[in-house]
């Protein structure tokens, strides 16, 4: 119980930090006073014709800009325009804000990471946004792994027991090729990543295998979403990113890894039988 309370305390502190970071958005024109307000009003005037009245979407509160997690493409488009305006003058602040928000969502398994990838594409482009998202995804997932291991183990085992047992059996079955199996789980488009992040420490998956499997395994997904974010203005729905062609490509990559796992496992059994035969032992 004490661990759960401590984990809840960490979540509260992290939430306060994110809100504080959003609340101290710098004055773009500098000089203190109402510099930030003037800059926001200028941005509102420059952007209103293309994105509509910003305040109607809840991005503005009176004359001040309110930074918040986007819930749909309309919110995301407005937020991307606002942060792009800030990025030209305060790049370090925007980068810190983005990285902090991304890690926050990943560490606490908050839905909506697809919007963060889209935002990365819009802000940083594919060249920088893609490797950044891959690294942040792996770090954030590892943070979730550690929180589950040290603070949420008892709660997760009670709530996810029915789903943990099948995963535990699969992990044990593939113990000799665990990294390949973990990679396949990440590459397969329908893998529940939030569940894998929480469950991995509970089924004895080492962090040494966990981190690189997330880093590499989610590269196709991260690339597709970041690339889509770089063309944000042409998207009308999140579903536009996941066409039949895209899903088939991701599935083909996942299946190739599965074939590799099966071949490696069969080779290992064959090698074991050969070694046993040489030693004059029974293959049984």
From TrEMBL:
Keywords, sorted A to Z: Membrane, Signal, Transmembrane, Transmembrane helix
Keyword Transmembrane among UniProt keywords: yes
Pfam families: VTT_dom
Domain VTT: 110-230
Topology in membrane: Multi-pass membrane protein
Transmembrane segments: 6-24, 90-112, 118-148, 194-221, 241-263
InterPro entries per the UniProt record, alphabetical: TM41A/B (IPR045014), VTT_dom (IPR032816)
Compartments, record wording: Membrane
Domain of life: Eukaryota
One Gene Ontology cellular component annotation held by this UniProt entry: membrane
Family, per entry: Belongs to the TMEM41 family.
Stored PANTHER family: PTHR43220, TRANSMEMBRANE PROTEIN 41A (PTHR43220:SF21)
Record protein name field: VTT domain-containing protein
Species: Macrostomum lignano
């Amino acid at each position: 119980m004490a661990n759960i309370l401590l984990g809840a305390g960490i979540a509260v502190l992290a939430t306060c930090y994110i809100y504080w970071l959003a609340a101290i958005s710098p004055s773009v024109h500098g000089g203190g006073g109402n510099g930030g307000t003037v800059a926001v009003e200028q941005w509102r005037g420059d952007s209103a014709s293309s994105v509509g009245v910003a305040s109607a979407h809840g991005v503005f509160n009176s004359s001040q800009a309110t930074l918040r997690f986007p819930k749909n493409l309309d919110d995301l488009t407005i937020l991307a325009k606002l942060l792009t305006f800030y990025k030209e003058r305060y790049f370090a602040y925007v980068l810190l804000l983005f990285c902090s928000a991304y890690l926050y969502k990943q560490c606490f398994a908050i839905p909506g990471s697809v919007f963060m990838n889209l935002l990365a594409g819009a802000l940083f482009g594919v060249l920088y946004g893609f490797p950044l998202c891959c690294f942040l995804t792996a770090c954030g997932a590892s943070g979730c792994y550690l929180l589950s291991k040290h603070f949420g183990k008892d709660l997760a085992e009670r709530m996810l027991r029915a789903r943990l047992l099948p995963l535990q059996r699969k992990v044990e079955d593939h113990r000799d090729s665990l990294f390949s199996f973990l990679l396949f789980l990440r590459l397969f488009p329908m893998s529940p990543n939030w569940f894998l992040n929480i469950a991995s420490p509970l089924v004895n998956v080492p962090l040494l295998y966990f981190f690189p499997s997330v880093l590499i395994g989610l590269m196709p997904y991260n690339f597709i979403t970041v690339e889509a974010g770089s063309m944000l203005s042409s998207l009308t729905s999140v579903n536009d990113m996941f066409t039949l062609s895209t899903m088939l490509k991701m599935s083909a990559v996942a299946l190739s890894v599965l074939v590799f796992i099966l071949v490696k496992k069969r080779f290992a059994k064959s090698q074991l039988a050969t070694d046993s035969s040489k030693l004059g032992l029974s293959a049984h």
